[in-house]
Amino acid sequence: MGNLNKLAIVFFACITHFLLVQFGSQFLVPFGYASVIWPATGVALGLYLLKGWPVLVGVFVSLLLSLPQDSLIASLPTEVAYILAVLSTVQLVVSRQLVLLFSQVPIRISVPFEIIKFLLLTGPVAMLLGGATIYLVLFYYLELPQQTLLYVGVTKWVGDFFSVVLLTPVFLFLYPNIFVKKARKASAAIITSLFCFSIICFVYFVSSNNFNRDQKQQFVNGTVSFVEQINSTQSTIKLYLKALEAYFQASEQVTKEEFSAFTSIIQNTEVRVRAIGWIPLITKQARTQFESSMQKLYAKPVHIKQQTSAGFKKSPQQPYYLPIYYTYPLDENQAVIGLDVSTHPFAGQTIKQAIVAKNFAVTDIFALVQQQDKTDGVVVYYPIFKKATPPSLASLIGFVEVVLELELLLDPMYTAEREGIFTYQISFGDGNVFSHPSYEPEHFIAHNVAFTLFDKQGVIRFSSSDSFAVNLINWVDFIIVFVGCLLGVICVMFVFFIVSFNTSLEKKVKASTHELTEKNHELILANDAKNLFLANVSHEYRTPLNAIIGFTELASKETEDHIALDYLARISDASAILLSTVNDVLDFSKMQAGQLDLDSKVFKPEEVTASVIGMLSHLAAEKSIKIEFNHDEQYSKQVEGDELRFKQILINLLNNALKFTPKGSIRLDCHCRDQDDDRLLTIKVIDTGIGIKAEDQQRLFNAFAQAQSSTTRNYGGTGLGLSIVKQLCILMRGEISVVSQEGVGSEFTVVLKLKIHNETEYSKLSAEQMDSASTEQCDHYKDMKVLVVEDNKINQIVVQKHLLNLGLGCDFANDGQQALEYLKVQQPDIILMDLQMPVMDGFTASKHIKNDENLKHISIVILSASVGKEEKQQAALLGIKDFIHKPYKQSDLERVLVKYAH
């Protein structure tokens, strides 16, 4: 099984490396073999560090298969591929050994120094072997400029270490190994590394492509003038031939001297031609005469001759001949005089094509008679026909020719500047090829241009020269790789640190969350305890206050002694102020918890304001302070809102004014105006008190804040009144503001927005009118049977006395259980239910009553000192809508009795 696994690793490593080599080969530098984008090395090293020597075998086999495919390596001896394969494989081993020798494994990824050292050893240091190897191999086997050799070597080095730095760690993060400690959430670092590698490759690819495109364009631009010059030369040659055509058509007889003179005139010295000749058409009958004139002209025996493989021989008899009669210059071309081109192995076919086409025709490349040691000659033929006759063999006069040696023709065009850019090869017709001696096909950059050479289609193939190849070296792109690689490493390290930090932070957050959860639980318990405490405090305060206020009210009704009535009035006012203070403390706690809600009842602001002034009149009288109350008619109209909270605002503002006004007066200016469906109440409390400093006014409405620290000592107070007033104003969709001057007085302005209430007969009844209700209304409830469920004996006496004053008796139950026992034998018309009682509380008893089909019709009114948001919600679920808050007045009882009277 182990051997099979190793074979599988060898196979996997070989296939993976081979495919990555094919991928990297798409981005080779123009010189071949090396590429900056070379993921094969980084992946191979990562696999080797994980799986060991089987990976080396796979990589070596892959290299043996892929290296011969490279054009540069293929041009070198076979052993070079083996040398490079061995050294590239050994490079991986060197990288591993460097890590083991100079690093403490496993590497701690949380330590930047260890990561950087690991990357430097496996990357730039170890990969120097590959770059140095290819440099030395190319230096030994190829004659390339040093700059080119260095560029290929550096490219190999950069491509290897770039892939190692960004790809090798990916494998070490994925699987357990001895080199790197397993990182938590390594996927983030892996994604970052691959992303950075991809981005750098993309940027390099775009930059390199742009650079190569620019160089290719520069190369192409360098060939344009050469092509243009070839076409220009061809046009010049055509002009030669056309000029000779006109000359021969215009003259009956052209002598050798005239031909030479005319030719020398038209010839352009910049276009190097081997010869220009005249070839007349000689019939078989005129041959003897022609040969005689030719011998006379050249003063030596000359015959019409033809060229054979054995040399020249006298032409046999044939219908016509096309011998070369004149040629210019003569000295170096005398050998061709008398040569019959119609039977020439190369020219003969071209002659026929020219006659048929009646146009220029060029021969294939062949060795000229004048230059037998070179095969670079071509001849251009142009037929001349008799003037004013249709062109045909019958009207043919002869041919003019231009003899060219391609090397002689093209060398002047191939200047030193062009030699530094390209080499070339010209091909035309069928297999005619002329190459410059330095031409190498597909040498770095190639460019082909199609052109027409007289009657044949041709191609000029350009290939970059060794000198131009130096321009293809692009050191700037290495900066992209180096900077990108550095940024990539920084990004990966940053991600690692972030992940490590997040992991540590998660632990701390988890611990802190657990601690906060526990503390939150403790706070909830503490808050519940606080709420329970406040509920108990409220109950414990209100219960005795209920007795005090109740007995005070009862005593006031039962005595006519003016002194006693005065005392009782003072007790009542003091009780009201104490109740207001208790309400402030409890309301502030509710506000902090967001549990303060407003009731909605119908009341008249003017009546409530008057009652508050009456409540505080004794305090004002003690200080000889006059309270003025001014209001408009609208202020007497009814509104819907929380009467108790409205009253609380007024008590706090007036009490505050009385407290800080040693002498003088207090004035209330109250106004009301309708705004859509609301009534906008504006209440101004103006005093002539001590005033407030400007800097103290900003914090005046903060909880527990007073103008100065000495204020509490001199004037008393909790410091909650104005804070509560502000919160109540906000709840009533209003606001409070102050204008004050120290030593002059203060003006507090409250604006409240309450709902408009349309008055009905019942709603027009005032509290005083309720006290003096008609006998008919009283008769409605005097027959009612009342059960009072109350555990406090004093409160039982108070409620009993109030009911007796209203003409009613009542029965008592000390707790909810006694109430249920009572209801088994009797059914009252209404139950006044306390909430906090021993044995069974009021809500439990109410639930039993409402669930009993025989009892659920009985009206229940909560009579308790503990009436908050939760109590109201719980009561609503039971269908209980009315509450009487302790402490209460007799009128509160009477209103409820009137409501439920049958």
UniProtKB/TrEMBL annotation:
The chain crosses the membrane at residues 7-25, 55-74, 80-103, 115-141, 187-206, 475-501. The modification 4-aspartylphosphate is found at residue 834. The keyword Cytoplasm does not apply. PROSITE patterns: CHASE, HIS_KIN, RESPONSE_REGULATORY. It holds the Pfam family Response_reg. CDD domains: HATPase_EvgS-ArcB-TorS-like, HisKA, REC_hyHK_CKI1_RcsC-like. It catalyses: ATP + protein L-histidine = ADP + protein N-phospho-L-histidine. It is a multi-pass membrane protein. GO terms for cellular component: plasma membrane. Keywords: Cell membrane, Kinase, Membrane, Phosphoprotein, Transferase, Transmembrane, Transmembrane helix, Two-component regulatory system. InterPro entries: CHASE_dom, CHASE_sf, CheY-like_superfamily, HATPase_C_sf, HATPase_dom, His_kinase_dom, HisK_dim/P_dom, HisK_dim/P_sf. Residues 536-756 form the Histidine kinase domain. Its EC number is 2.7.13.3. It is an enzyme of class 2 (transferase). The keyword Cytoplasm does not apply. Residues 785-901 form the Response regulatory domain. PANTHER family: OSMOSENSING HISTIDINE PROTEIN KINASE SLN1 (PTHR43047:SF72), TWO-COMPONENT HISTIDINE PROTEIN KINASE (PTHR43047). This is histidine kinase. It comes from Pseudoalteromonas citrea.
